[in-house]
């Protein structure tokens, strides 16, 4: 399995261990392995950009799960993200050619959105020309590559997690940062957009169900609840004991702030809180349906309020939640 040192991957590794699987985990040299604490597993060193290390890691494994990805809304070097997320995915699937089953963790970012804001599903068309940002493009291209390999006989099942929150989001991810900032009182206003929010442990169990019951070549959305950003921030405020933000901002006046934030990020090397791509994404409600996974896999996500409460509790316990 790849990605076990990360947020979603650590949850998937624990879900696999709970099912009795013996684990071999790929980790980069020098990576932060705090999320592996207490997990009985063989850890091998490798990198998605080093195909030979992937061949060594996958050798003898009955199943392979590819959960690792570079997940950032803004990157100074888009080519590096494409190498990791696209070329690395293809290299891993080729390295895992002898596996009985492969589960590839894609993202709802690789899927299309409806024009009217109603929940999209696995069949909603994607217009490649309208994909926003390097991350979304990388996940779209990687999923298309996986689908092509599956059509040639690679036993790959695709899962498309929505926006996960919950324990062990150490970096944190962009969605986790949104929760953390709101819980710390750093979100005084909101824009009119929406997300599908899901507990990371439900996403993890969805990976296991895809391994056990998924059909190669098929994709399954692993989502939770479709909520407006205002509703999400209200859940975070309730979990953190704060008043929710009540000021709604139009998107247009935020563009200059995004330009400045990105310029500062290039100079400082720190990831910006606000980007032009995030504003482009905010123009549409990113709502999705998990009906296929619920019916075919037995997937059963919990309410978003529980996911938010667990995320806030973990950030507080980890010493990351400061006013």
Q: Determine the strand fraction and express it as a percent band.
A: 5-15%
Mean pLDDT rating: 92
Overall CATH architecture: 3-Layer(aba) Sandwich
Give the full name of the CATH homologous superfamily.
NAD(P)-binding Rossmann-like Domain
Radius of gyration: 19 Å
Helix content: 40-55%
Distance between the termini: 37 Å
Describe the 3D structure.
There is one protein chain. The protein has 323 residues and is α/β, with parallel strands linked by helices. The protein has a single domain (7-317), classed as Rossmann fold (3-Layer(aba) Sandwich). The protein has 11 helices and 11 strands. The strands form 4 sheets. The protein has a 4-stranded parallel sheet, with helices on both faces. Strands 6-8-10 form a 3-stranded mixed sheet. Strands 1-2 form a two-stranded parallel sheet. α2 (51-58) packs parallel to α3 (78-95), α5 packs across α11 (304-317) and α7 (229-240) crosses α11. It is globular. The mean pLDDT is 92.
Which helices and strands appear, and what pairs or packs with what?
Blueprint: H1 7-18, E1 24-27, E2 42-45, H2 51-58, E3 63-66, H3 78-95, E4 101-105, H4 134-151, E5 156-161, E6 163-165, H5 174-183, E7 189-190, E8 194-199, H6 200-213, E9 219-222, E10 225-228, H7 229-240, E11 247-248, H8 255-268, H9 276-281, H10 291-297, H11 304-317
Parallel strand pairs: 1-2, 3-4, 4-5, 5-9, 6-8, 7-11
Antiparallel strand pairs: 8-10
Helix pairs in contact: 1-6, 2-3, 3-4, 5-11, 7-11
């Amino acid at each position: 399995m790849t990605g076990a040192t990360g947020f979603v991957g650590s949850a998937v590794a624990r879900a696999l261990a709970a099912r009795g699987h013996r684990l071999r985990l790929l980790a980069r040299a020098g990576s932060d392995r705090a999320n592996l604490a207490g997990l009985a597993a063989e850890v091998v060193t490798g990198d998605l950009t080093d195909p030979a290390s992937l061949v060594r890691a996958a050798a003898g494994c009955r199943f392979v799960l590819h959960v690792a990805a570079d997940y950032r809304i803004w990157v100074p070097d888009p080519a590096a993200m494409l190498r990791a997320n696209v070329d690395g995915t293809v290299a891993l699937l080729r390295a895992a050619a002898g596996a009985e089953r492969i589960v590839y963790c894609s993202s709802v970012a690789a899927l299309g959105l409806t024009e009217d804001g109603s929940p999209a599903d696995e069949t909603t068309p994607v217009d490649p020309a309208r994909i926003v940002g390097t991350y979304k493009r990388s996940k779209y291209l990687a999923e298309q590559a996986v689908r092509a390999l599956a059509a040639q006989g690679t036993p790959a099942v695709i899962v498309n997690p929505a926006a996960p929150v919950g324990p062990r989001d150490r970096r944190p991810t962009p969605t986790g940062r949104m929760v953390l900032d709101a819980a710390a009182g750093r979100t005084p206003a909101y824009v009119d957009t929406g997300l599908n929010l899901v507990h990371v442990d439900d996403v993890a169990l969805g990976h296991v169900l895809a391994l056990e019951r998924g059909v190669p070549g098929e994709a399954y959305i692993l989502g939770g609840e479709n909520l407006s950003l205002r509703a999400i921030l209200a859940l975070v405020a309730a979990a953190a004991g704060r008043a929710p933000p009540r000021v709604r901002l139009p998107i247009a006046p935020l563009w200059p702030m995004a330009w400045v934030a990105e310029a500062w990020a290039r100079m400082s090397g720190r990831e910006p809180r606000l980007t032009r791509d995030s504003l482009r994404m905010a123009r549409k409600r990113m709502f999705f349906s998990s009906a296929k996974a619920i019916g075919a896999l037995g997937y059963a996500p919990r309410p978003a309020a529980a996911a938010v409460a667990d995320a806030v509790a973990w950030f507080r316990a980890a010493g990351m939640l400061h006013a």
